[in-house]
Amino acid sequence: MAELGPVVWPPAPLRTERLVLREPEARDRAAYIDLFASSEVRTYLGGPRPRAELESAVPEVPGRRPGVLVVDHDGAMIGIVTLDRRDAERPGHVRPDAGEAELSYMFLPEAWGRGYAHEACAAALGWFADAFPSEPVVLCTQVANDRSVRVAEKLGFTERERFEEFGAQQWFGAWSPVPRSG
């Protein structure tokens, strides 16, 4: 995945009413492995990865790269939010030159149903809108993942198209920042 572009990364921690979005740290490793090994989390993402494989492959500080934010609740990682450039070869684009920013997120099952995904993604989108004014963001999820589609719609993503990818029908939506009056 291509990096976002000329921004300072990581941003200062993004704080919401209940969450902190921050750079990954060594203390997140166990939760990171749990996230990628979870059959519940990975149902619509190609399935879980073997825990033994993750234990040997995940670095001491997992996910440390531009675009990855750990979602922290009360001092513990409950998920991740990522912003990357969408691969030009993949279907689903809103710009003729492709390369749109793409929002993705994964949360541990114990964090589901509490509004954390919406809260964390809204904070990430707010940061993005300030860093890249007027640039759209896209989101792609399996149509069957109705919880993820609902989060996307609640965040203000508008469905643009559906297509087949990774052996499943995908929901593809776009979000544009609301211009701030100044």
Describe the structure.
This protein has 182 residues and is of the alpha+beta class. 23% of the residues lie in helices and 27% in strands. The protein is built from 4 helices and 8 strands, in the order E-E-H-H-E-E-E-H-E-H-E-E. It has helices at 29-37, 51-57, 116-131, 146-155; strands at 14-15, 20-22, 68-73, 76-85, 101-107, 137-142, 158-165, 168-175. The chain has an 8-stranded mixed beta sheet with strand order 1-2-3-4-5-6-8-7, with helices on both faces.
Question: Key features?
Answer:
182 residues, alpha+beta, 4 helices, 8 strands, 23% helix
Number of helices: 4
Strand order of the largest sheet: 1-2-3-4-5-6-8-7
Q: Which structural class best describes the helix and strand composition?
A: alpha+beta
Detail the poorly predicted runs: none
Strand content: 25-35%
H and E order: EEHHEEEHEHEE
Which shape, going by the Cα principal axes? Answer: globular
Write the layout of secondary structure elements.
Layout: E1 14-15, E2 20-22, H1 29-37, H2 51-57, E3 68-73, E4 76-85, E5 101-107, H3 116-131, E6 137-142, H4 146-155, E7 158-165, E8 168-175
Parallel strand pairs: 5-6
Antiparallel strand pairs: 1-2, 2-3, 3-4, 4-5, 6-8, 7-8
Helix pairs in contact: 3-4
Give a brief description:
The protein has 182 residues and is an alpha+beta fold.
